[in-house]
């Protein structure tokens, strides 16, 4: 699959924490660090997401906020 999004970060699923309708998917990025995505439980099932599965975190946004203390 090819995507137009430039920010495609490879990693592996670290954890899937399912709620009633949505799930938090924690991804350990190959370059270090973690990213958490909130997606539907149906998407978790359709993608076969589970700890250890190789995935890409794809970020497509028109705005990125940066903050400092």
UniProtKB/TrEMBL annotation:
Which Gene3D superfamilies does this chain map to?
A: 2.40.50.100
Broad class of the protein's primary localization: membrane
Q: How does it sit in the membrane?
A: Peripheral membrane protein
Q: Which InterPro entries match?
A: Mo/tungstate-bd_C_term_dom, Mop_domain, Transp-assoc_OB_typ1
Q: Is-annotated flag, keyword Coiled coil?
A: no
**Residues in domain Mop?**
2-68
| Pfam families with a match to the protein in the record | TOBE
Q: Which UniProt keywords apply?
A: Molybdenum
> Where is it located?
Cell membrane
Superkingdom of the source? Archaea
* Name of this chain's protein: Transporter
User: Can you name the source organism?
Assistant: Methanoculleus caldifontis
């Amino acid at each position: 699959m090819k995507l137009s999004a430039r920010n495609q970060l490879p990693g592996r699923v670290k954890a899937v924490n399912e709620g009633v309708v949505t799930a938090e998917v924690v991804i350990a990025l190959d370059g270090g660090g973690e990213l958490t995505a909130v997606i539907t439980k149906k998407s978790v099932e359709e993608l076969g997401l589970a700890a250890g599965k190789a995935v890409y975190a794809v970020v497509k946004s028109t705005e990125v906020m940066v903050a400092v203390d």
